[in-house]
């Protein structure tokens, strides 16, 4: 049934351009995008004009208020024009690459762009001063790929990205990790981590001394996060990827020095990469997300953050319902235990947070709006006319069939032409929710702009006491602006707003919160006053979800775990549905002793308890876990949340050449090499490059004489080659894993992506030495 509906939906929309900018590859794509942008969204534009989004402007380097209508309109047009243009590309250099290689890469970049500057009138690249070695381009990704003048630069970007030297990341996405100021050795929680660009940036600053828990509430997105971290070659054993709703993350296991709460939001600040915002924007989305955002942020700040720690709250929305209103409620509930910290982003134009805003709400719910649309479509009107004619004929014949007609309406409530009692209560005035004209104000008067917003189908109330009863399920007291006394103590101006036309970026909001005092147990109750504002059916669902989370995994009669999250096990503890991931458990002594003997893992410097495996994996894959993450596992986090991934693959049981033994994995080779006294060799750059060819098998005779003799003395199995000069710089991952075959050859054990990255690094090393 689901597949049929999906196919029918696909056929129904087969002639429509897909995606935000993907339509550009279609013949009608450009006109499709241009039509959406030109028409705009009356409701969204009227809403933000009434909120005062355009009431300030930049004059040189100073933010001033718009003093007249012309300045207001110029600021509005500038915002609208920028918010509908394609987002420019940006990237940053990895913090952990050698400084000499980074300087060489930057010199290459400048040489390539100097040629481009002579051909193009735009400034192709500019440095982001708030983050060293980060750059924003003056062109978008589509232009980089298509413009022949930028072909050489495009190839260079691909090469550096493949090598792991740079990471392509949106400019405003780089802001939260910079604001959070993670220090080496910190224990950090990323509450809503996927897709992982901010996570990787935090990981670079964290180093190998700290620990990072990257959490997401969606298992598929959590797995995507693991893939993303591996793709950008920053996966290390200090990361624990978990799957749990942020507002239910367990707080009794440990507390964190830093927390990033990049909350789920309506995303209207992403209009430059998501054209759908200009068609589907709704104030209802922001109002409904407010409660979820507050629950997640309060859980982080009140329960998970250490006293003296910092939490960065951020969204990619411009809406104060999702931004300042959430922050204000956090400060209000904390009773002085939380405070806002001033944020300084050097060379980056930011606007202060708002201390006042207006609360609007659609006069119709989405279901009511949809039913109204269905009621007025041509087919429904034709059916209604036919029924009315039949009713009239029956009345003339003296038959009573009105009840039959009304029964049809009851079966199809969407086509009933009489509003229900609930409709009348919810709709004090009848308004057209699909207004066709463009938003074009003629005054900056506050009352005038409010009336234009109301014309679009929005209701406005100055205070919560003015909200009529039918709307109080959607509008809550925490949506409204703070009192004058709260404004003086909250310092909401310390929040940061990034508008698209200030720095040619997307829209973004950031607030840095410091925990200055402990919060009482009573105040830490997660949804003490939020549940009372939820509809009864939603309260029941949330209560069941939280109860299941607190109860932990189900146990059988013997106390063995049967169910954990979406993972089902039999009486022996083995997965019977293949869903989810098993816990990390210690490796059996017999297997561990085999590894120690095979690779010379000395007892003096090799910590055996950091070698772990999955509970039902039958020890086929063995992982290397860092000490900070191992300590977290020992505290029992696996009994509270679903652990998706942690550590690095260190050994895998292999059956190459008819043997059954463990081989070293490329993923964790650079962490194992310092502990190995057997089956590792140092190779010159010529021999090292021969191991990176596209051919799977390499003849031993092709290596230098010294390396040939060392390899031929080995028994069948895996071994490691280290590039000469990088024996003590293993963080650069200049190692390759190989397999000694029965015949006079070796087999590569390096994935294509990793091999290409190492090839790019070797090429840079060769060029740097010239």
Number of strands: 31
Show unreliable segments. 1-29, 398-433, 526-535, 537-543, 546-580
The major beta sheet can be summarized as: 10 strands, mixed
Report the helical percentage.
Answer: 25-40%
CATH topology title of the largest domain: Rossmann fold
| Rg of Cα set | 30 Å
**What CATH architecture of the largest domain do you see?**
3-Layer(aba) Sandwich
CATH level 4 superfamily of the largest domain: Vaccinia Virus protein VP39
How many domains would you count in the coordinates? 5
Tell me the strand percentage band: 15-25%
Structural class: alpha+beta
Name the average pLDDT: 81
Separation, N- and C-terminal Cα atoms: 65 Å
Q: Total helix count?
A: 28
Structural shape: globular
The CATH class of the largest domain: Alpha Beta
Question: What is the strand and helix layout of this fold?
Answer:
Blueprint: H1 2-12, H2 29-39, H3 42-51, E1 56-59, E2 62-65, H4 69-83, E3 88-93, H5 99-117, E4 125-127, E5 134-140, H6 141-146, H7 151-163, E6 166-168, H8 175-180, E7 187-190, H9 197-206, E8 211-216, H10 219-231, E9 239-243, E10 256-262, H11 277-280, H12 283-304, E11 305-315, H13 324-334, E12 338-341, E13 351-352, E14 359-362, H14 366-376, H15 378-396, H16 402-411, H17 421-426, H18 446-455, E15 458-461, H19 484-490, E16 496-498, H20 500-503, E17 508-515, H21 521-524, H22 536-551, E18 554-555, E19 561-564, E20 567-568, E21 584-586, H23 589-599, E22 611-614, E23 621-624, H24 627-634, E24 642-646, E25 648-654, E26 661-664, H25 669-672, E27 680-683, H26 685-690, E28 697-699, H27 705-712, E29 717-723, E30 735-740, E31 745-748, H28 752-769
Parallel strand pairs: 7-8, 7-10, 8-9, 10-11, 27-29
Antiparallel strand pairs: 1-2, 3-5, 3-6, 4-5, 9-24, 11-17, 12-17, 13-16, 14-15, 16-17, 18-19, 19-20, 21-22, 22-23, 23-25, 25-26, 28-31, 29-30, 30-31
Helix pairs in contact: 3-18, 5-7, 7-28, 12-13
């Amino acid at each position: 049934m689901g597949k049929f509906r999906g196919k029918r939906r696909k056929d129904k929309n087969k002639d429509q351009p897909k995606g935000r900018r993907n339509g550009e590859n279609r013949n009608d794509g450009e006109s499709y995008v241009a039509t959406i942008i030109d028409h705009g969204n009356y409701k969204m534009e009227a809403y933000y004009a009434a909120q005062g989004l355009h009431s300030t402007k930049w004059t040189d380097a100073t933010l001033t208020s718009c003093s007249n209508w012309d300045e207001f309109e110029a600021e509005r047009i500038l915002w609208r024009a920028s918010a509908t243009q394609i987002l420019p590309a940006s990237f940053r250099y990895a913090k952990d690459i050698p400084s000499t290689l980074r300087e060489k890469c930057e010199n290459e970049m400048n040489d390539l762009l100097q040629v481009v500057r002579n051909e193009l009138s735009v400034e192709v690249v500019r440095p982001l001063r708030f983050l060293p070695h980060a750059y924003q381009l003056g062109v978008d990704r589509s232009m980089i790929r298509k413009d022949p003048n930028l072909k050489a630069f495009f190839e260079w970007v691909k090469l550096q990205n493949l090598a792991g030297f740079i990471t392509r990341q949106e400019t405003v996405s780089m802001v939260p990790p910079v604001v959070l100021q993670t220090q080496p050795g910190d224990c950090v929680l990323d509450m809503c981590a996927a897709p992982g660009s901010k996570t990787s940036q935090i990981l670079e600053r964290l180093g190998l001394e700290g620990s990072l828990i990257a959490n997401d509430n969606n298992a598929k997105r959590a797995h995507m996060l693991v893939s993303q971290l591996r793709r950008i070659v920053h996966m290390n054993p200090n990361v624990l990827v978990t799957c749990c709703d942020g507002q239910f993350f367990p707080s009794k296991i440990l507390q964190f020095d830093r927390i990033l709460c990049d909350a789920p939001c309506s995303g209207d600040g992403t209009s430059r990469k998501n054209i759908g915002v200009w068609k589907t924007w709704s104030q209802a989305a922001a109002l409904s997300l407010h409660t979820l955002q507050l629950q997640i942020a309060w859980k982080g700040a009140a329960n998970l953050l250490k006293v003296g720690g910092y939490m960065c709250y951020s969204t990619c929305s411009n809406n104060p319902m999702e931004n300042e209103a959430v922050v204000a409620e956090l400060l209000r509930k904390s009773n002085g235990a939380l405070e806002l910290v001033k944020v300084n982003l050097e060379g980056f134009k930011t606007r202060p947070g708002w201390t006042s805003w207006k609360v609007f709400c659609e006069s119709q719910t989405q279901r009511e709006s949809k039913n109204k649309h269905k009621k007025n479509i041509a087919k429904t009107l034709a059916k209604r006319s036919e029924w009315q004619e039949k009713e009239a004929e029956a009345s003339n014949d003296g038959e009573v069939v009105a009840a039959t007609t009304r029964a049809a309406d009851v079966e199809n409530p969407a086509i009933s032409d009489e509003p229900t009692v609930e409709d009348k209560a919810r709709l004090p005035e009848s308004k057209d929710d699909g207004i066709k004209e463009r938003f074009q104000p003629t005054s900056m008067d506050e009352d005038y702009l409010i009336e234009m917003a109301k014309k679009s189908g929005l209701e406005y109330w100055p205070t919560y006491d003015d909200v009529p009863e039918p709307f109080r399920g959607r509008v809550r007291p925490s949506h409204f602006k703070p009192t004058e006394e709260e404004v003086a103590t909250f310092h909401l101006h310390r929040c940061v707003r990034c508008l698209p036309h200030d720095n040619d970026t997307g829209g973004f909001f950031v607030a840095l919160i410091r925990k200055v005092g402990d919060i009482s147990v009573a105040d830490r109750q997660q949804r003490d006053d939020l549940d009372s504002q939820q509809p009864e059916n939603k309260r029941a669902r949330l209560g069941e979800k939280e109860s299941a989370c607190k109860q932990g995994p189900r146990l059988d009669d013997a106390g063995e775990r049967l169910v954990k999250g979406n993972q089902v096990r039999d009486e022996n503890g083995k997965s019977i549905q293949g869903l989810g991931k098993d816990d990390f458990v210690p490796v059996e002594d017999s297997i561990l002793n085999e590894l120690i003997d095979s690779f010379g893992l000395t007892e003096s410097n090799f910590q055996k308890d950091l070698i772990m495996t999955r509970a039902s994996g039958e020890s086929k894959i063995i992982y290397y876990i860092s000490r900070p993450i191992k300590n977290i596992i020992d505290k029992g986090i696996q009994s509270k949340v679903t652990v998706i991934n942690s550590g690095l693959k260190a050994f895998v049981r292999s059956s190459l050449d008819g043997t059954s033994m463990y081989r070293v994995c490329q993923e964790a080779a650079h962490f194992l090499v310092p502990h190995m006294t057997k089956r590792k060799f140092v190779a010159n750059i010529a021999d090292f490059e021969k191991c990176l060819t596209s051919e799977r098998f390499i003849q031993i005779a092709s290596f230098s004489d010294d390396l040939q003799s060392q390899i031929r003395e080995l028994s069948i199995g895996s071994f490691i080659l280290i590039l000469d000069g990088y024996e003590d710089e293993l963080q650069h991952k200049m190692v390759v894993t190989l397999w000694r075959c029965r015949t006079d050859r070796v087999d590569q054990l390096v994935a294509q992506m990793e091999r290409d990255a190492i090839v790019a690094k070797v090429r840079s090393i060769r060029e740097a030495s010239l």
